[in-house]
Amino acid sequence: TFLATMKGIRKPKINYLKQTVINPKDEANDPSKKPIYFPIEVLHYAPLNQYDFELIYKLPTILIRISQLYRIERVRKLFADNIQSYSLIDVDQMPTVTFNDFLKTNENLSFLPLISLTYDNLLSCNTTLQPSPDILFQAITRRSTDENLDMENLEILGDCFLKLIVSMSLYHRYPLAGAGALTVEKAKQISNSNLYRITVQKKLKTYLNVMKINFRGEEANWLPPGYIIKKTEQNQINNELGSKRYEYQKVKRKAFADMMEAFMGAFLISTNYMVTIQFMKWLGLDVIPLDENKEIMKTPPILCSYLQNEESNRTVEKFYKEQAFSFVEKTINYEFNNKAYLIAAFTHPSSFANRLTSCYERLEFLGDAVLDFLVTRYIFVNDKNITPGTIIYLTINSVLLN
């Protein structure tokens, strides 16, 4: 009997959604690298070769990626149709979707430039910048999916920018409100319950990607497009497992709030500050202080109301010199155009020496959000591979933060 030398076949892989690192021990025991021998008499030609079989096993992953691309494109079009600060770029002009971490692989990030963040020309902002499909997919994907990426870093970035922009808007909108009242109103705007309400209102719930795909076994939760489970089998599955895992994803409301913050982070990374604020405005958040005439409100005066006259500058300059505030400017290497802000920043609520400006509480309310954003921005700019846990740790332990 003649024996034919055959190439071994490894157990077929069916899930190609995530890149896996091969263990050297497993690679050494790979059956495909060891020849096996069969009698020629028992062999016959297969209708498909090995590469055909591998393609068939890749088909479930291909179908999932196609459905995900469709979902991303729906989100991209929804944002472009409603934000109206940019025109939707044809998909052929967009970069190829890699389903990898956008923050680690993309070299063309804006890196959050330090520019003057004002409301000038904000309402008429027009640009070609818009979030790419890659970063939108990352913004809707949670770590529980076991993909090559997740939304967590985008969520952290979006969260601190949301706090900053809402703080700025409230500071302008309520010039007479104290820090306590501003903090209460800010908490309402940025709360998880409010972000969840916005998710429902804007019909964004269906885009969240939560479940890890399992193709087979007791935890299987995927069906090919066009397939359904018979009612008898479905009832049996529901009775045994207690959930309709083929039809629904089980997730807490906070996950939807996290997705909204991740969207803000995605816009911030891939567009600019103005487009991001326009997106937040479409969501219904208080990010642009408009008056009843739809005009942007002016910056609240820092001086007390009775000093709004021609002598105010001389009065401020006199107090500035008497208290030797020039030493402070020299120490921090910055000269204030309006010395009243410097005076207010050093005025405790219990102080009676300064009757020119309000105390520092409102400025502290605003400065806290500015500091939080700048620290988080610095971390993102200087370490693209940083983990969410490290970001939170460094932010909390940064100098003078809270």
From TrEMBL:
PROSITE patterns on file: RNASE_3_1, RNASE_3_2
SMART domains according to UniProt: RIBOc (SM00535)
GO MF annotations, alphabetized: deoxyribonuclease I activity; ribonuclease III activity; RNA binding
GO biological process assignments: apoptotic DNA fragmentation; pre-miRNA processing; siRNA processing
Keywords: Hydrolase
Annotated ranges, domain RNase III: 134-272, 325-399
Cellular-component GO terms for this entry: cytoplasm; nucleus
Protein name as annotated: RNase III domain-containing protein
Protein species of origin: Adineta steineri
